[in-house]
Amino acid sequence: MRELNHNDLKSFIKHEIIKEIKKIRGKHSPISEVVNNVSQSLRVEKIYDLSKKEKYFFLLIARNYNKQPKLRYFIAISLANNSSDLLVQFARDFVLKSDLKLIQYSIFPKTLRIQLLLLKELKLIEDYANSIDKFKNYRKEFRSNLIKVKNFVENK
Fold it and tell me: What is the DSSP string of 30-49?
């Protein structure tokens, strides 16, 4: 994989991903991350619903707390529409093995529904396609594990 500069990624996102995609309106909550044991906030500027192309996927564009790059791009998949501590525990093992983040986040600001999102920062254009495939497989595995637990509880 070749290293691409931030402008290449920005133009790829603008012309290939969010072209004709619906932007989710409203003020969005920031995402925080821990850097050198200090919590830093990333202000989410825009969220795009990628369901037209890929079901359950979102693109988050956040303003960086550092000067360069100015914006950071994240691809996310909704694992569950209503998040809970139990669902976080199910998803946690996979996330710890991968270079991913698991967040509870309200995608739609006017609703009080908190979704469980699997999140990966896009640094290269190739990260987009790789993440889509990886996320789809993990979501399928996550949902099948939930069904197994549901069936186990119903049979007891």
Answer: -EEEEETTEEEEEEEEEEEE
User: If you ran DSSP here, which 8-state letter would residue 28 be given?
Assistant: -
Under 8 Å between Cβ of 82 and 114: yes
Complete domains list, the chain, with CATH: 6-155 (3.30.1460)
Q: How far is 23 from 144, CA to CA, in rounded Å?
A: 30
What does the alpha-carbon distance between residue 65 and residue 102 come to, in Å, rounded to a whole number?
20
- Give the C-alpha separation, 110 to 35, whole Å: 30
Name the nearest CA neighbour of 10 among 63, 75, 73: 73
pLDDT at 4 over 60: no
- The reported pLDDT for the residue numbered 6 is 59
